[in-house]
Amino acid sequence: MNIKKKIIPRLEIKDGKLIKGMRMEGLRVVSANLEPIIKRYLNMSVKEIFIEDITTSIFDKKIDFKTIKTLSSFIDIPVSYAGGIKNLNHINKLFKIGVDKIYINSALNNNFDLINQSSEIYGSQSIGVLVQTKKVFNDWYIFFESGRIHPKIKLKDWILDIKNSQAGEVIISSIMNDGMFNGPDFELLNYVQSLKISIPIIYSGGIRHTNDIKKTLMKKVNSVAISHSLHFEKFY
């Protein structure tokens, strides 16, 4: 197995800068220049770059199409994007400026059918769902807007809805392990595996090294999205 082919660098951006937080809080600037960081990842022979503007939904900002277009212009592998996507017009514009795949999260709280509407136009291979989750008391729940909105929807119910939709992929992001450099959330991974998701899964949260990736892939996960350990050059 080529581990590098399973790694998807996850770049969280704000105003054209690379940012990172811990548990999706305390966001700080890692670099004001995204281009050299992306080129470093391209030299790793990764299969995809995932760009996520995590401030668009939180602050109700417009999607930074200019930055995304600039980044897409020199990335020669598939580019996926999440953040602030609210309608078909947003999705169409993202595809026109070079994005290959989009992930929808917060907009689904009010319009879940956006998955099916967009999949029917662009194909399910281009449409995914970003799921942010953590355990509350004794059950797993989903969250919107980078963990700030708790709709009181259980993860298993949300996953069932996704399975019954035309989504082509799902990212499972562990809120409690995000940016913590403490290893994957195996309790979450075991739970997700028990749900028998039929579409490809990407896991994100806490991955430090190749052994973490190997163990994660054993949980029926297809790829891993990594930010902290790559950005701070801790990955080994």
Largest sheet: 8 strands, parallel, barrel
Name given to the CATH homologous superfamily: Aldolase class I
Q: What would the CATH topology be?
A: TIM Barrel
In DSSP terms (H or I, runs of 4 or more residues), the helix count works out at 9
Please tell me the total number of domains.
1
Q: Give the low-pLDDT segments.
A: none
H/E order of the elements?
Answer: EEEHEHHEHEHEEHEHEHEH
What is the number of strand segments? 11
Distance between the termini: 16 Å
Structural class assignment: alpha/beta
Question: How do the strands and helices of this protein lay out in sequence?
Answer:
Layout: E1 7-14, E2 17-22, E3 25-31, H1 34-42, E4 49-52, H2 55-58, H3 65-74, E5 79-82, H4 88-96, E6 101-104, H5 114-122, E7 127-136, E8 139-143, H6 155-163, E9 169-174, H7 186-194, E10 201-204, H8 210-217, E11 223-226, H9 228-231
Parallel strand pairs: 1-4, 1-11, 4-5, 5-6, 6-7, 7-9, 9-10, 10-11
Antiparallel strand pairs: 1-2, 2-3, 7-8
Walk me through what this model shows:
This protein is α/β, with parallel strands linked by helices. The protein has a single domain, classed as TIM Barrel (Alpha-Beta Barrel), CATH 3.20.20. It has 9 helices and 11 strands. It starts with 6 loop residues before the first strand and ends in a 5-residue tail after the last helix. The model has no long low-confidence stretch (mean pLDDT 93).
In brief, what are we looking at here?
The protein has helices at residues 34-42, 55-58, 65-74, 88-96, 114-122, 155-163, 186-194, 210-217, 228-231, and strands at 7-14, 17-22, 25-31, 49-52, 79-82, 101-104, 127-136, 139-143, 169-174, 201-204, 223-226. With 236 residues, the protein is an alpha/beta fold.
